[in-house]
Specification:
about 90 residues; mainly alpha; about 0% strand
Length: about 90
Amino acid sequence: PVQRGWRMSEVNAERLQDLKVFLRSIQRPGLSLEQVKPEDNIVQIGLIDSLALIQITLYLERKYNIDFSLLGFNPEQLSSMSNILQLIEESAA
């Protein structure tokens, strides 16, 4: 089966930069965000802790009007930058 991936369009490139700025504000010290690939699991590699997932949901609700009360909370959707971008794209559609 073909895995659906996100496209690095101009819009996604801009969203990725915005997301990185936000992640820098909540990340744990000691790991450089520049070393993290978009598909890396940001909790597993230690960039953020599980409590930061709540901060990410608040960021997405405020910035992109994503309503998690309707969508439901799925931590897997927030596990990597590429998954977050895909969630933003799907919510904007």
